[in-house]
Design a protein that fits this description.
- It is built from 11 helices and 11 strands.
- It is of the alpha/beta class and 312 residues long.
- Helix 4 crosses helix 8 (228-235) and helix 7 (216-226) packs across helix 8 (228-235).
- Strand 2 (65-70), helix 3 (74-77) and strand 3 (89-92) form a beta-alpha-beta unit.
- The relative contact order is 0.17.
Length: 312
């Protein structure tokens, strides 16, 4: 599958600004320093970020892919972004969580292409089948085009009652018609306790992969509804975007906004604005903890010399 250059309003955003603290004991052993996991070679020779960029290149051209990072990590990414244009890279002054990172990228995209359809991709995930991943994302982009007021979530069929993921409860469409590949969302459950997670799994609920696709306007709308004060704070710096004063204005903004989680504080409070696409056969894993990394490596039959085993 190749990039779909016939869709000029298609964009991708790679979220690579996290600190990777939960995986730090492992990544420190691999690299000898405190670089976040997205800048580490955990699953092969490429870093997790490089693998994400390669995966996204099946879907979105490089010039319409925005890389969101954090200034504190510059020592780990400086050499890798020399070939990027300024418009392809967004450096946050601080890591304030996923909601500010997404809002910051929406500022840039709204300035560049307000009619765009954008997909957000974490930079620390593993997929065993990139072609299947690209196929599901093609369907998600198409669904977002057909449902301009909804954000499409990529839902993963669970293989256990995971308590560290968000869970999506699909519903039955009773109102506006939807593409056959997606369902409305009845409720979004953020990191449920184990008993509830077991019940959700039995009910056919899905893991939230945190891969999301929608019109730029749809994302702006759900943030404005859930976090009106933060939305207005970001909107106030819109005139500085892609100007010489952008960095200074973002510095001022990030000193006064709180750390905020997009799943907990945006997605979970307005399921009516969401739809979900069930993505099977991807071999997906969020590599947020050492145990998950070792589980994937074991499935792949890969041995390491890191000298570290996952906690029992």
């Amino acid at each position: 599958m190749h990039q779909n250059d016939s869709m000029p309003h298609r964009w991708g955003v790679i979220l690579a600004g996290g600190d990777g603290t939960r995986l730090l004991p492992l990544t420190r052993r691999i690299t000898g320093d405190d670089r976040p996991k997205q800048f580490c070679s955990v699953m092969g020779r490429e870093t997790l970020l490089e693998q994400t960029q390669l995966r996204i290149s099946l879907l979105v051209p490089k010039q319409r892919t925005l890389l969101v990072m954090t200034r504190a990590h510059e020592a780990f990414y400086a050499a890798d972004v020399e070939a990027l244009l300024p418009s392809e890279m967004l450096i946050q002054p601080q890591n304030k969580g996923t909601a500010p990172a997404i809002l910051c990228s929406l500022l840039r995209l709204h300035e560049m292409d307000p009619a765009g359809i954008v997909a957000f991709f974490p930079s620390d995930h593993h997929f065993s089948d990139d072609e299947a991943f690209a196929g599901h994302l093609e369907s998600a982009y198409a669904a977002a085009a057909a449902l301009p007021e909804r954000v499409i979530l990529l839902g993963i069929p669970p293989d256990g009652p995971e308590t560290e993921y968000g869970w999506i409860e699909p519903g039955i469409s009773t109102g506006m018609p939807m593409p056959s590949c997606v369902s409305p969302v009845t409720r979004f459950w953020e990191k449920p306790e184990r008993g509830l997670a077991t019940s959700l799994m039995e009910q056919g609920c899905l893991w939230n992969s945190f891969i999301m696709v929608g019109h730029i306007g749809a994302f702006r709308s759900i943030v404005q509804h859930a976090l009106p004060a933060m939305f207005e704070a970001f909107k106030s710096v819109q005139p500085s975007v892609l100007t010489a004063s952008e960095g200074m204005e973002l510095n001022r903004l990030y000193t006064r906004i709180p750390a905020t989680c997009f799943s907990r504080d945006v997605l979970s409070v307005q399921p009516d604005a969401l739809a979900v696409l069930c993505a099977e056969g991807l071999g997906w894993s969020d590599l947020g903890e050492p145990g998950r990394v070792f589980s994937v490596l074991e499935r792949k039959g890969v041995a390491t010399d890191w000298g570290m085993k996952p906690a029992a």
